[in-house]
Amino acid sequence: MKRLTLPNIQDDDVLEKIIAGITGIPDLADKVRQQSEDILSANQQYTALGRSGDLYTLPAVIDDDNTDIIGTLKKQDFLKLYENYFVKKSKPARCIYDKLMVAANERCPFCGGIGRPRNLDHYLPKACFPQFSVSTVNLIPACRDCNMDGKADAFAREAGDQVLHPYLDQDKFYNEQWVTATCTIDFDGIGLVEYSVSPPEYWSENDKIRVTTHFESFEIAKIYSREAATRITTFVTQIKQLLDLGINEDEAKAIILTPPIENAPFINHWERLMCLALNQYSFTA
Ligand SMILES: [Zn+2]
Question: Would the pTM count as exceeding 0.85?
Answer without folding.
Answer: yes
